[in-house]
Structure formats: C-alpha cells, structure tokens
C-alpha cells in the first residue's frame, strides 16, 4: 500500500491575495494535513473516507473529489484494472487551511506515483489546480502549489510555469489557530468589493513586491512591515468571530504581525521567538477556540511539501 501526506497551507499569506501561499509544519513533529492510502483492485474505483473530519464530506463517496481524481486517472490511462483509495480527512472543511487542496494534492500525487508517474510536475500541478477549483469555485494555486511543492510559493501563472518558490525566514514561527467553525470560501470571497480604489491597488502591489524583495534580501524587519493585507482583511475581519480582538491581543503579547489564513476563520501570527509563540498559542486556545475540534499549532514552514510516508 502506498501512503501519501499533503500538508496544510495558508493561502494569501496576508500580503499576497491569490498570489502567495505557504505550507505548514507543526514544530512538535505532528502532521497537519490529509493522507491518502492507495492499493490495487481488479477493476473500478473502490473508495472510502476515514479520519476526524470525514463526517463533513459528502456521504456518497462518488461525490468526493478524490474519487473523481481516481476515475480520471483510470480513464486517462485506459487501465483495465482498478484501484482502492482511502482518504484520511485530517483537515477541517472551510477552515482556511487549504483543506480541499490537501485532499486533491494527496490524491493526485498518490495516483501519479502508483501508476508510474505519467504526469510531470507542471502537468500534475495543473491537474491539481483544476480539480481543487471544482470545490472552491475557481482555479487558484495559492494552496495547491505550496501543499504540493512545499515552502512559500509565489504564483506566476506564466505560460510555462505556474509558481516559483521564494526564500522564507528560517527563524520565524507561524502560530495558526482554527476556532472550530467553518466559513465558505465562496461566501467570504463575495464580501470583497467588485472594484478597488487606485490607491489600494498601488498599496497591494507595493506591499507584495516589497515583501518578495525583503524575502530575497533576508530583511526580516522590512518583510514584517510589508506583511499586511489591504485587499481582503478589511472586508472579512468583521465576519470572523473574535478575529479583531485576537489580533489586538497578539500584538500586546509581542507577536510581530497577524493575518487571516486563506479566507478564514483560521488566523496566523508571526514571531521570531519560540517563547512568545507558545504564549500566543496558549492565549488563542483559551480565547479564540470556540467550538470542539478547534486547534492551534506553532509551526515552521513545511519545506518538503507532499510526500510518501
């Protein structure tokens, strides 16, 4: 049996709406992401779903995107035999942690490995974006790219290359907190205005380009100063219960900056001090986690991306 793990990811990373994403790895060594187990079958797709969040998925396995990925593979390769696929759903749906991307990436990576790598990296990444877009409503690579390839990824969407890795700060700790509620990506996207003032567009371009520059220069102070969201957070913050209060409290605790992971409700907060990160984690556990199933982790960036385990 082949087992594949695909890490959780932050879309946008605050400053890079739809253009920046990063994969997450808890510092305690635990795995924060979905797994897919795959083995052979005589014919057809035999699908099952397990894990702490499996009950939030469609009851009929044929409605699951991982099942559909497997059907696509068998059809594309014109296989006469079949495959047995089990999705272990470890990420909550609608969390802002790239839940759908994790399932799709783990599924397609596992299928590609199992059937002898019929797709190269760029072709497989294109498939991942296409299938994940069926869930989120539109094709965006800011979750699938870091989930698949690891690290922090800048979306290029050029003719030949979807994304490129940019340097990250090895001494940064990313505290992420999921309060236990789900928010629809489509509904959170609908909160955003159809048009922006020219000054906002200029600020967005300045912040993102300066953040990328600071990343290459390893200028942490400049990167933190530029790590702010002018496109989405002003319109989404009020719709995430407790977010505004948490952001203020984390600043008081000494965290360097705080933002919304993806479209929320998960937040991220950055520091270069582990003791401060642990204090922030404790505060969030007590004050931000509102439902059973909520959690918080101190993370570094996952540089490995999706892999066989």
From TrEMBL:
Keyword set includes Nucleotide-binding: yes
One cellular component (GO) term of this entry: cytoplasm
Keyword Manganese: no
InterPro entries named among the record's database cross-references: GHMP_kinase_C_dom, GHMP_kinase_C_sf, GHMP_kinase_N_dom, GHMP_knse_ATP-bd_CS, Homoserine_kinase, Ribosomal_Su5_D2-typ_SF, Ribsml_uS5_D2-typ_fold_subgr
All residue ranges annotated as the GHMP kinase C-terminal domain in the record: 214-282
Catalytic activity: L-homoserine + ATP = O-phospho-L-homoserine + ADP + H(+)
GO biological process: threonine biosynthetic process
EC class (word): transferase
Segments forming domain GHMP kinase N-terminal: 64-151
Enzyme Commission number(s): 2.7.1.39
Protein localization: Cytoplasm
Associated pathway: Amino-acid biosynthesis; L-threonine biosynthesis; L-threonine from L-aspartate: step 4/5
Keywords: Amino-acid biosynthesis, ATP-binding, Cytoplasm, Kinase, Nucleotide-binding, Threonine biosynthesis, Transferase
Binding site for ATP: 92-102
Coiled-coil stretches: none
Matches recorded under Gene3D superfamilies: 3.30.230.10, GHMP kinase, C-terminal domain
GO molecular function: ATP binding; homoserine kinase activity
Family, as annotated: Belongs to the GHMP kinase family. Homoserine kinase subfamily.
Role, per record: Catalyzes the ATP-dependent phosphorylation of L-homoserine to L-homoserine phosphate.
Name listed for the protein in its UniProt record: Homoserine kinase
Organism: Shewanella psychromarinicola
The gene coding this protein: thrB
